[in-house]
Design goal:
11 helices, 16% strand, alpha+beta
């Protein structure tokens, strides 16, 4: 046993399993970081680029996709703490596109079969994904609203958005809500709207606000919405599964993250490294404190990491099969509500990214677990490596 309460033998088992994923060609490379008490254990396995053979390193830069969402939620809560925003205040003042909304009578209704919204959309609705708009978990084209969202470029996807925030919000405002505000949980879209809100309220770009209020205080020097030329040698190539092999999805040089985006997506636009995200994860685990400084109040972190959904809302909110059996949703994070396996104590929280990245904080165990890969997710089965990593991380606890 070490000072971090981690078994060296069982950390070896974790390493063996992750090596197997690389050796079988399921992923190109992995950075796995496990932090507990005063110990940080890091595994770097495989290649950042299969063609050049450039090795994965501890400081390799990854597209973290939806792991951006917790950072956006933290940024919004900084504004709540300063009384610039209030959780239950309508956001119409800054987002007039969301005022006086119409709501589909039913999800399969024609777009003109609507009723007025029962109430305005609030910041709490955006943070908890209960605003009335988001990913429709059904086969493409089943409902008229799905086609409309796709045609307007509003359907969630892995690539950076190609229109300006104002144009994107105009398109959001042109369509009805899918359900009444506060009624159900729908994934993703609330975070992108949250990013527009933060930028409009502060009068700054989202990247600048994140940088000043979160990245600089935490020393997250490699986290941003794009990768500058000087750091491109550390950006991992992103892959996708093509039948039974890895094919390039996004190159490091000349790829989609090599230039500042038209729309800085609070739902999925950031790149980061294992140590950068460890700083964010540790701040959250320390209930808002980083060293001698405080980024968020203790009560704020506790609120963010508390399940905000009722059982009725979960029952009405389809996601992955079985997702709600042991999970809830806070502000930008998934919250574990009961122990359903070896991994994840009740009260632990975190989230994943669509390119295979994952972050998990466990206050009970004083543990941060981060896994970074670059392989486009295609569904729940493509997260096997993340599930194995987290299960093996918990098995390595030895006190």
């Amino acid at each position: 046993m070490s000072s971090g309460g981690l078994s060296k033998a069982r950390l070896g088992r974790l390493s063996d399993v992750l090596h197997g994923y690389v050796e079988r060609g399921e992923v190109a490379g992995v950075v796995a970081l496990l932090s507990r008490h005063d110990e940080v254990h890091v595994e770097t396995i495989g290649a950042a680029d299969l063609d050049t053979g450039a090795p994965i390193r501890r400081d390799t830069v990854f597209r973290i996709a939806s792991m951006t969402k917790p950072i956006a939620a933290a940024a919004a809560m900084i504004l709540v703490e300063e009384a610039v925003l209030r959780l239950d205040e309508p956001v119409d003042r800054w987002l007039p596109e969301l005022a006086d909304r119409q709501v589909l009578r039913a999800i399969d209704s024609p777009l003109d079969d609507t009723v007025p919204a029962n109430r305005p959309i609030t910041l709490r609705d955006l943070l908890t994904f209960r605003l009335g708009l988001g990913a429709v978990m059904a086969p493409p084209g089943r409902y008229p609203i799905q086609n409309a969202l796709a045609e307007a470029g509003l359907a969630p996807g892995p690539n950076p958005l190609s229109v300006s925030p104002d144009e994107w919000m105009k398109r959001v405002g042109s369509l009805p809500l899918i359900h009444q505000p506060g009624e159900k949980w729908m994934y993703h879209t609330g975070s992108d709207i949250l990013g527009v809100l933060i930028a409009r309220v502060t009068g700054r770009s989202l990247g600048d606000f994140f940088g000043e209020r979160i990245f600089a205080p935490l020393g997250m020097k490699d986290t941003a919405f794009s990768v500058p030329e000087a750091k491109l040698g550390r950006l991992a190539t992103c892959y996708r599964i093509d039948v039974d092999r890895l094919a390039v999805y996004d190159q490091a040089r000349g790829g989609l993250w090599t230039r500042p985006p038209v729309f800085a997506s609070a739902g999925g636009g950031l790149v980061s490294t294992a140590d950068d995200f460890l700083a964010f994860g540790r701040m959250m685990l320390n209930r808002g404190r980083h060293g001698t400084d405080r980024v968020l109040a203790r009560a704020t972190v506790e609120l963010m990491t508390t399940d905000q959904l009722t059982q009725e809302q979960k029952a009405a909110s389809p996601f992955y099969p079985g997702f709600w059996d042991a999970n809830g949703w806070g502000f930008g994070v998934c919250v574990t509500t009961r122990r359903a396996g070896i991994a994840a104590s009740p009260g632990s929280y975190g989230w994943v990214g669509g390119f295979g990245t994952s972050w998990h904080d466990d206050p009970r165990e004083d543990m941060v677990a981060i896994l970074l890969i670059q392989r486009l997710m295609t569904g729940p089965a493509s997260t096997d490596i993340n599930a194995d990593f987290l299960t093996l991380a918990y098995q390595a606890i030895d006190d």
